[in-house]
Design goal:
The structure holds two protein chains of two kinds. Chain A has a single domain, classed as Orthogonal Bundle (MetI-like fold), CATH 1.10.3720.10. Chain A contains 13 helices and two strands; from the N terminus they run H-E-E-H-H-H-H-H-H-H-H-H-H-H-H. Chain B has two domains: about 240 residues, Rossmann fold; about 110 residues, no CATH class. In chain B, about 25% of the residues lie in helices and about 35% in strands. A six-stranded mixed β-sheet of chain B has the order 6-7-8-3-9-10, with helices on both faces. A six-stranded antiparallel β-sheet of chain B has the order 13-12-11-14-20-21. In chain B, helix 2 packs across helix 3 and helix 3 packs across helix 4. Classes of the chains: A mainly alpha, B alpha+beta. At the A-B interface, helix 8 and helix 9 of A face strand 6 and helix 2 of B.
Chain lengths: ~300, ~375
């Protein structure tokens, strides 16, 4: 037994080393940075230790805007994308002909580059001297006025970002949910049919509980992913997100490090720690809910 | 509720370029009397499960009709047929407790059939008592043994008081001992409820032991229907004779010559009124009498003492079986000398069947 354990540690060693050097050490370092006031990475000096970095970040209107944007994005896109993905997966598992084709089509966004998708969205939504974009073309058909989705009002920009995010995260969710649905044994449905169970009840009482572990996995990873959103906003609104009022928390951290206003690793670290605390809290709440509602084998 | 199957046929369309149409059930007609327990028996792929699915309504026949009593249910979807089905792997909902599983069919009832929560619970407990599972109502299926899960599945099928109970290989997931116990249990429950029951099995012993009637199937075609003992004693063809009985029946290539039945060089029986022809001779294991003056000579391979009786293992060049087992009572164990190389048997004529060499159909015969 003792000998076996030593062996086990030996096998784990490479992974542990990598994690320690590239994960644990930087994490601890960021935590320390966040309390070092006025840290300068060039001279490796700082003025003192305290909570000023946090206080600065939490009072920075750009950061508050980023938090607001991120929260809206999370609260709208996670339930929406999971819900739509579930509907599409149910549809996919119900049809026989062309299923493979549809599966491929739905999976395309997953293998498409973020920035390429951003370009597609430009064509759909961007106003140029020559065209108002495809979305405005549709709006004009129903007689609505033209809206600038990229440089216009806040809600319009948020709408585009949400649609974009939902669209980009959907393929993975569909992939996971279709395989989850396929793993529910046909016999359960047959048994329910014999007993005269209505379609809705079959879904609510059998399908949903059986795929609930996967559903919850998607919700948790969805929350985490949405909190870390950044490249999507860049793809649509460019790199100057603060000006566009479309910055996210991760965007704010990046700007603090490398952006035009950059060179403030202490503020970036403080913001990163705040993000970490938020994500940790939400995930813990999710796990608690999971314990209560999700069926485990 | 009697069940009438009328020319029931299920064909699957050809798949791919090479494959032909597959006929899973071919022209099955049978009237199952009210309150009987029927065993559908056959090797895998013989169409017995398809037949069950056709009765349940999960599959639609390509031809023929199904009646429950006077009602034509052929076009009726499964939920309106009033059948209870127990699946081979039980299909208990793993996220629900035993009580919730048993109550599930009742919660589906609508309109005037709707039950109050108390009534549902009462019915669920009644069903649970019938299968003796009432002490485990709050457990999840994963916390039950295979036999207990089986009972829950039966309770769930019975709780809505179906007109017909269908069981798909109900015992195949149980160990040998539990299988014996559960099959008696199924018989008891069926007798208590008086519900017309059809069950599917590939295990002939299982079918023989509890069925009122058995239906032997092969390649989608019904071979023989009858009371288990009758089918055993009077098989219509070689397949049925070979399929029923453990140890299996011994089959020999034989010949009728001048009113005598020959196995190899041995004239084992005198048969009346049969023209000279080649035949298959099938002899039940209990049809041998060890007798030094007996006509059938085989090479002695060994003797197994099983307690109640003993089986003699022998070889015969005319036999299809690599080893022939003959069962004789333990009292007559001195009749065989183990040191001998050959063993001689006299035969009990009513345990000997003759089959046509080409069609494998039964040939009736009388001994002189």
């Amino acid at each position: 037994m003792e000998k076996n354990q030593n062996k086990a540690w030996l096998y784990l060693l490479p992974a542990i080393l990598f994690l320690a050097v590239f994960m644990v050490y930087p994490l601890v370092d960021v935590f320390i940075y966040s309390f070092e006031e006025g840290y300068n990475s060039a001279s490796q000096t700082y003025f003192g230790v305290g909570t000023y970095n946090y206080s600065y970040v939490l009072h920075d209107p750009y950061f508050l805007q980023a938090i607001k944007n991120t929260l809206i994005l999370v609260l709208i896109t996670v339930p929406l994308s999971t819900g739509i993905a579930l509907l599409i997966s149910l549809g996919l598992s119900a049809i026989k002909p062309l299923r493979k084709l549809f599966q491929t089509v739905y999976f395309l966004p997953y293998v498409t580059n973020t920035l390429a998708v951003g370009m597609v969205f430009m064509i759909l939504f961007k106003k140029t001297p020559y065209t108002d974009g495809f979305a405005n073309l549709l709006l004009s058909f129903i007689g609505a006025g033209s809206i600038d989705f990229i440089d216009g009002p806040y809600w319009a920009k948020m709408l585009v970002l949400c649609i974009y995010t939902v669209w980009i995260v959907m393929p993975f969710k569909i992939l996971v949910l279709t395989s989850a649905l396929a793993s529910v044994k046909e016999d359960y449905y047959n048994a329910a049919r014999i007993d005269g169970t209505s379609k809705f009840r079959i879904f609510y009482k059998i399908t949903l509980p059986m795929i609930s572990p996967m559903l919850f996995y998607l919700v948790i990873t969805g929350f985490i992913g949405a909190f870390k959103a950044y490249s999507d906003a860049v793809a649509i609104f460019g790199t100057n997100l603060n000006a566009a009022e479309m910055n996210t928390i991760v965007g704010y951290i990046y700007d603090m490090l490398y952006g035009d206003s950059g060179g403030y690793p202490s503020y970036a670290s403080a913001a990163a720690i705040i993000l970490f605390v938020i994500v940790l809290t939400i995930t813990c709440i999710n796990l608690l809910i999971r314990k209560k509602y999700v069926f485990n084998k | 509720m009697k069940i009438i199957l009328e020319n029931l046929t299920k064909k699957y369309p050809a798949r791919g370029k090479k494959g032909g149409e597959v006929i899973a059930v071919n022209d099955f007609s049978f009237e199952i009397p009210d309150g009987e327990l029927i065993g559908l028996l056959g090797p895998s792929g013989c169409g017995k499960s398809t037949t069950l699915n056709l009765i349940s309504g999960l599959q639609k026949p390509t031809g023929g009709k199904i009646f429950f009593g006077e009602d034509d249910v052929t076009e009726l979807p499964p939920e309106h047929r009033g059948v209870g089905l127990v699946f081979q792997n039980y299909a208990l909902y793993p996220h629900l407790t035993v009580l919730q599983n048993i109550m599930f069919p009742l919660e589906n009832l609508k309109g005037k059939n709707k039950l109050s929560k108390e009534d549902m619970k009462k019915r669920a407990y009644d069903a649970a008592k019938l299968v003796q599972i009432e002490d485990y109502m709050e457990r999840r299926p994963s916390e039950l043994s295979g036999g207990q899960q089986q009972r829950v599945a039966i309770a769930r099928a019975l709780v809505k008081m179906p007109r017909v109970l269908l069981l798909d290989e109900p015992l195949s997931n149980l160990d040998a001992r539990l299988r014996l116990q559960t099959r008696e249990e199924i018989r008891r429950i069926q007798k208590e409820t008086g519900i017309t029951t059809v069950f599917v099995t590939h295990d002939q012993e299982e079918a023989m032991s509890i069925s009122d009637r058995i239906v032997v199937m092969k390649d989608g075609v019904v071979q023989q229907i009858g009371r288990p003992q009758d089918v055993y004693d009077d098989p219509v063809n070689l397949f049925v004779a070979k399929f029923l009985g453990t140890p299996p029946i011994g089959v020999y290539k034989g010949e009728i010559k001048g009113g005598k039945l020959y196995i190899g060089e041995d004239a084992v029986l005198s048969v009346k009124k049969l023209a000279d022809r080649k035949v298959y001779v099938a002899i039940r294991p209990e049809g041998y009498i060890p007798d030094a003056k007996g006509a059938l000579h085989s090479t002695l391979k060994g003797v197994e003492v099983m307690g109640r009786d003993i089986s003699i293992l022998s070889e015969n060049s005319a036999s299809e079986n690599p080893v022939i087992r003959s069962i004789i009572s333990a009292d007559s164990k001195n009749a065989v000398n183990i040191t001998e190389k050959t063993v001689a048997f006299a035969l009990k004529p009513h345990k000997v069947f003759l089959f046509d060499f080409e069609t494998e159909e039964r040939i009736p015969f009388e001994t002189v």
